Amino acid sequence: MDIVQEPDGVSLRQLLMSFGEPLAELQYAPDLDAPVTGVALLDPEDPPVARAGDLVLALGVRGRSALPVLRAAARDGATAVAVKPAPGTPPEALRTAAEDAGVALLSVHPEARWDRLDALVRAALAVGRPQLTHADAEEGDLFGLAQTTAVLTGGIVSIEDTANRILAYSRSADSDEADDLRRLTILGWQGPEPYLSRLREWGVFQQLRTLDAVVSIDPHPELGLRRRLVVAIRSGERQLGTIWVQEGSAPLAERADQALLGAARVAALHLVRRRSEVSADLRLTRTLLAGLLDGATGPQTLAGHLALDVRRPAAVLGFALPGGPEPGRSEALNVISVHAAARHRNALVAPVGDRVYVLLPELPRGVSPETLRGWAQDIADAARRHTGEPLRGAVGRVVPDLHAVPASRAEADRVMDAMAAGRITADIAALPDVRAQVLLGELLELLAANPEVRDPRLTALVAHDARHGGRLAASVLAWLDGLGDVREAAAGLHVHPNTLRYRVRRAQQLTGLDLSSPEQRLLAMLQLRLPDTASAPAPEK
Question: What's the family (predicted)?
Fold first, then answer.
């Protein structure tokens, strides 16, 4: 047992931030602010002994074999235990044991080297705070947010700090749309005092200090001022700055105030990040959120990190990011973030691959699925208007608490999978709306992945068409889809009814199929929809 003890240490939250990459993922933590004052390397030959405040690195044990180490560390007052998972072993047993023992549990990446993790922990303890990278400092573009907000509100946007200094502003295609206050503010990078005095006289700044709402300022042509909306950017009770939207030659968008509220909540993350270590904190939030969405991490840690009520209802919205260049995808992500925050204060957004998930925690009890579908549709419509790209998404079911969030995400994924396969044409859908399409797609995937459960006679029919350029399989499927109505099915294939009758008889003669059997008809309707059937020649004209 090798132990290093530091007098002050760092919080578990800070330690996780300092890693900078997924060397270890947090599985459970009773308190993210618990201090880590030392690191203990546990050799399997040594008795499991730790000191209060230790992070125990469990070398040489994996999965369930680490249970005695975890319990002993908790008994000795250790803050956390880091364990490598055993291949093929789910983490639930260790996580449950950690919850029962009241000790944090970290899952170390199987390929991570213990000596590197040990060095990172010791460095963090020596410095006493996490080290942020250059990439962290640049993450989050306020200018990009200002431009997105301008598009959503239909106005000209500037983001300012509490001293009315410009932090970012939107580009304007027509410089004549900017009024005197806008021009002077941009030129001087700060609001001019004569105009600021008028705003103080009108009580604008007082309202911003006391109201968590959008403040509207009437136009004053005699002062060269056009209509404005302004909202405070807040982190808790603290005001961090303001976002201003000036009306140009056209009126502001109908829901400009709602978009502005969402933008203020997104801007708060950027501004807090500039003042402290929240870029790393956001990375931790995203990690915890991703873990909750896929069920790898329980909800208590994320709830403790963000002061969320685990017992309140929640739901997941999923969106498929458009293809194409990265700027368009980033713009879509900005639109999703702003609109989600505008509709639900505690909305959390996590991009995962080509999809973006919005967790809506602490929903009011009894919230209707129609409400969530409306929110998702508004987001999709906004993305289509402002990026020119379609944004398609799914609404997961409302679940009773944060423990069931993975089920809501899985439901949204099932719908988006069906959308990706072309089975659903709607921009936004929930599983109850499209259950038949989703279940059919999943059945076809099972058939495609398991050739042994297919009827070889149907497989032979498709192969016969491929060799001879025939349309027997497609004709049988059209006849089945038409419920035996030969005229309707023949019209869909653009052939004579007698031709269709001949093809159905010929298919049965070649294969031995008995299409008078309900079971064989049902199997044929499924199996003939597999992709290899769809690739047959086009229908005759």
Answer: Belongs to the CdaR family.
Backbone conformation region of residue 189, classed left if phi is above 0, alpha if psi is from -120 to 50, else beta? left
Could you tell me the strand order of the sheet in which 215-217 lies? 166-169, 156-161, 238-246, 228-235, 215-217
CA angle 143, 144, 149 (to 5 degrees): 95
Find, among 338, 342, 320, 333, the residue nearest to 391 by Cα.
Answer: 320
Give the tens place of pLDDT for each residue, 224-273: 889 999 999 988 777 889 999 999 888 998 889 988 998 898 888 777 76
Give 393's strand partners. Answer: 319, 428
Say how far apart CA 224 and CA 363 lie, in whole Å: 44
Environment class of residue 172 by beta-carbon count within 10 Å: exposed (0-12), middle (13-18) or buried (19+)? Answer: middle
Tell me which H or E stretch contains 392: strand 392-395
Using alpha carbons, select from 222, 25, 9, 207 the residue that is nearest to residue 104: 25
The answer to whether 457 and 512 have CB atoms below 8 angstroms apart is yes
Report which DSSP code applies to 185.
H
Model confidence over 341-389: pLDDT tens digits? 878 888 999 888 889 999 999 999 889 889 999 999 988 988 887 777 7
- Spatial CA neighbour of 371 closest among 398, 348, 393: 398
Residue 87, SS3?
coil
Which candidate, 480, 483, 458, places its Cα nearest to that of 525? 480
Phi/psi for 53 (5° steps) reads 90, 0
Q: Which positions ≥6 away from 455 have C-beta within 8 Å? A: 520, 523, 524, 527
Spatial separation of the C-alpha atoms in residues 359 and 341, rounded to whole Å? 11
Burial zone of 522 (CB within 10 Å; 0-12 exposed, 13-18 middle, 19+ buried): exposed
Rounded to whole angstroms, how far apart are CA atoms 230 and 217?
Answer: 8
Tens of pLDDT, residue by residue over 505-529, are 998 888 888 888 888 888 888 888 8
